[in-house]
C-alpha cells in the first residue's frame, strides 16, 4: 500500500478501538477523576460531599506525617534501586558474555521468578530470616550465635524483599542492552592498549547505559508505588507512601484523602518517568520483551 | 582470568539469592512439623490434604482461576487486535498510541487501583467481581500488547497476500492463515495475562468486595497470624501451576515444531 493511502486507512483504528476505549475509561478518566475527587469533602466514614475545597491538600502539605512518608519512600526507592543496579549488573554481564553452552538455562532461570507468585516470594523470607528461619538455624548450628538474631520486621527486611522481587527486571534490562553491543568493540579497545577494566569502563559500560537506566527506572517506580511488601516484612515504622493510601481508602474509608494522596504519588512518580523519557525515550522499556 | 571467575562466583550467589527462598518454601511444604518453619521433622503430605479440605482456600483458588481465565480472554482479545494494528499498519501518531497502550504500566498500581475504584463508585458500581475483572484486564493489557507485538513482527505479510491472491476472502485468510500463525502469540499473551491476574495483590486488595478472596489475598490474610504449613503447601501448588504450565507448554510447542520440520 502506498504511503499516501496509509493516512486514510481506517482499519488500524478499528483494531485499536477496543483497547483505546478500555484505556480511556479505565485509566485516563479515573486518573483525571482522582484529581477532581481530591477537592471533595470527607464527612464521615465512606461518606463524602461534592465540594471544591482544599482541606485535603492542606492536610497533605501541613501534616508532617505525610512529608515523612514521602521522604521514607524516596529514600527506600533510591536504596533499592542502587542495590539492584549493583547486584544486577554483574550477572547480566556474565549471561551476556559467557561462552557457557547452556546460556539459555541462565536466561530461563531469570524469567522464572516472574512466574512465581509475588506473595509467596515475599513470604519466603520469613522462612529465611525469621527467628526459626534457615539463617538463624545455620548460625546457631555453627555455634556463631547462642540466641536467634532478630532479623525480621525491619527496614532491611523490606529492602531484601523488594530486591528479591525486582532484581530480575534489572538483570533482564541490562542483559538486553549488553546483548546488543558489538562483541568486537572490547577486543578492539584492548588492541589499542586499554586494560580490561578500561575497555569495560570506556566501551561496554557506556553502551549498556540505556538498559541500566531502564532497569533503574522500573525498580524505582515499582518500589515507590508499593505497599504490600512493608506490610508483610516490615515493622510498624516501615511504611511507604502507598501504605498511607491503602490506610486512607481501605481502613479509614476517607476517599477524598485517598484520592489526594494517590494523585500526589502519581505526580511524584510521573515526574521521574517524564524526566527519564526526556533523556532516554520510552522505547528501551519495551525492548526487554523482544 | 581471575576477574572472570569472580564474576561467575558473584552470578552464582545472585542466583542463589533469587532461588533459595523459593526452594525453601517448596521443601517446607513437605515438612511434617505442625509449624510452618524449620526444623524439618520428617516427610509428610498431610498439609496438602489439609489444603484440599480448607474451604476458604479452595474458594479463593476457584475465584482466582476464574478471574485469571476471564482476564486472559479479555486482555488477549483486545491486546491482539491492538498489536495487529501496531505491527501491520502505518498511521500517524503511532508512538503516542503505543505510549497510551502501555500507560497502565507507567501508572503506579496503587494509584490505578484507587482511581478505578473511586471512579466506578461514583458511577454507583460498588466493589465487585466485575471491577476485579476489568481492573485485571487493564493491568495485563500492556504486557499482552508487548508480548504479542514482539511475536507478530516475525510473521510475514506475504503469506496472507498469497492466500488472498489465490482467491481466499479476508475472513478465510484470517481463519486459515493468520490465526494459525498467530496461535503461539495468542497463547503467549494469554498465559502472561493469566499469570498477572493470578498473582495480583496490590490492586486486588483495593478492588475485591468484602468476603471475596483471591489466592494472594487469602495468603495475605493468613500471614497476619503466622506462616502456617498450609501456606507452604499452597505455595508449592501455585509454583507448580504458574511455572510448570508455561514450561510444559513451551517445551511441547518446541517439540511439535521440531517434529513438523
Main attributes of the structure:
heterodimer, A: 290 residues, mainly alpha, MetI-like fold, 14 helices, 74% helix, B: 261 residues, 77% helix
Would you give an account of this structure?
The complex is a heterodimer of chains A (290) and B (261). Chain A is mainly alpha-helical and 290 residues long. Chain A contains 14 helices and 2 strands, in the order H-H-E-E-H-H-H-H-H-H-H-H-H-H-H-H. The longest helix of chain A is centred in the first third of the chain and has 34 residues, at 64-97. The model of chain A has no long low-confidence stretch (mean pLDDT 87). Chain B has a single domain (56-260), classed as Orthogonal Bundle (MetI-like fold). Helices cover 77% and strands 0% of the residues of chain B. Chain B is built from 12 helices and no strands. Chain B is globular, with a radius of gyration of 22 Å. The interface between A and B is large, with 87 and 88 residues.
Amino acid at each position: 500500500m502506498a504511503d499516501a493511502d496509509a493516512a486514510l486507512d481506517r482499519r488500524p483504528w478499528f483494531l485499536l478501538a477496543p483497547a483505546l476505549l478500555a484505556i480511556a475509561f479505565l485509566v485516563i478518566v479515573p486518573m483525571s477523576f482522582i484529581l477532581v475527587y481530591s477537592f471533595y469533602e470527607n464527612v464521615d466514614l465512606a461518606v463524602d460531599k461534592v465540594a471544591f475545597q482544599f482541606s485535603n491538600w492542606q492536610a497533605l502539605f501541613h501534616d508532617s506525617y505525610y512529608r515523612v512518608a514521602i521522604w521514607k519512600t524516596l529514600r527506600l526507592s533510591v536504596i533499592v534501586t542502587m542495590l539492584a543496579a549493583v547486584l544486577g549488573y554483574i550477572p547480566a554481564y556474565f549471561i551476556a558474555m559467557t561462552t557457557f553452552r547452556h546460556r539459555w538455562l541462565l536466561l530461563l532461570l531469570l524469567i522464572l521468578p516472574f512466574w512465581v507468585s509475588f506473595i509467596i516470594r515475599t513470604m519466603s523470607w520469613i522462612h529465611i530470616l525469621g527467628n526459626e528461619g534457615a539463617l538463624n538455624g545455620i548460625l546457631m548450628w555453627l555455634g556463631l550465635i547462642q540466641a536467634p538474631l532478630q532479623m525480621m520486621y525491619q527496614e532491611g527486611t523490606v529492602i531484601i524483599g523488594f530486591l528479591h522481587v525486582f532484581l530480575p527486571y534489572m538483570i533482564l534490562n541490562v542483559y538486553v542492552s549488553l546483548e546488543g553491543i558489538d562483541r568486537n568493540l572490547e577486543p578492539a579497545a584492548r588492541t589499542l592498549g586499554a586494560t580490561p577494566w578500561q575497555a569495560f569502563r570506556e566501551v561496554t559500560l557506556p553502551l549498556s547505559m540505556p538498559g541500566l537506566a531502564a532497569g533503574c527506572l522500573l525498580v524505582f517506580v515499582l518500589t515507590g508505588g508499593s505497599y504490600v511488601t512493608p506490610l508483610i516484612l516490615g515493622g510498624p515504622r516501615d511504611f511507604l507512601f502507598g501504605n498511607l493510601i491503602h490506610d486512607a481508602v481501605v481502613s479509614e474509608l476517607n476517599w477524598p484523602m485517598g484520592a489526594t494522596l494517590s494523585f500526589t504519588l502519581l505526580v511524584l512518580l510521573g515526574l521521574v518517568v517524564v524526566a527519564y523519557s526526556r533523556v532516554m525515550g520510552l522505547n528501551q522499556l519495551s525492548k526487554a520483551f523482544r | 582470568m581471575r576477574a572472570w571467575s569472580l564474576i561467575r562466583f558473584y552470578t552464582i550467589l545472585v542466583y542463589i539469592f533469587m532461588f533459595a527462598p523459593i526452594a525453601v518454601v517448596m521443601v517446607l511444604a513437605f515438612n511434617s512439623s505442625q509449624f510452618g518453619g524449620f526444623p524439618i521433622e520428617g516427610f509428610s503430605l498431610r498439609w496438602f490434604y489439609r489444603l484440599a479440605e480448607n474451604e476458604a482456600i479452595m474458594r479463593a483458588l476457584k475465584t482466582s482461576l476464574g478471574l485469571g481465565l476471564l482476564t486472559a480472554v479479555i486482555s488477549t482479545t483486545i491486546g491482539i487486535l491492538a498489536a495487529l494494528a501496531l505491527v501491520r499498519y502505518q498511521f500517524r501518531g503511532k508512538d503516542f498510541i503505543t505510549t497510551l497502550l502501555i500507560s497502565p504500566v507507567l501508572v503506579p498500581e496503587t494509584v490505578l487501583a484507587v482511581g478505578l475504584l473511586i471512579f466506578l463508585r461514583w458511577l454507583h458500581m460498588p466493589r465487585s467481581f466485575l471491577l476485579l475483572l476489568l481492573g485485571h484486564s487493564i493491568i495485563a493489557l500492556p504486557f499482552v500488547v508487548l508480548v504479542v507485538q514482539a511475536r507478530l513482527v516475525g510473521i510475514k505479510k506475504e503469506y496472507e497476500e498469497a492466500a488472498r491472491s489465490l482467491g481466499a476472502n479476508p475472513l478465510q485468510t484470517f481463519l486459515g492463515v493468520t490465526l494459525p500463525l498467530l496461535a503461539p502469540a495468542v497463547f503467549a499473551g494469554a498465559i502472561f495475562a493469566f499469570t498477572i491476574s493470578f498473582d495480583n495483590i496490590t490492586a486486588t486488595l483495593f478492588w475485591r468486595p468484602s468476603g471475596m478472596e483471591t489466592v494472594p489475598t487469602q495468603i495475605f490474610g493468613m500471614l497476619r497470624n503466622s506462616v502456617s504449613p498450609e501456606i507452604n503447601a499452597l505455595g508449592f501448588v501455585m509454583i507448580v501451576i504458574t511455572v510448570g504450565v508455561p514450561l510444559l507448554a513451551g517445551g511441547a510447542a518446541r517439540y511439535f515444531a521440531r517434529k513438523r520440520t
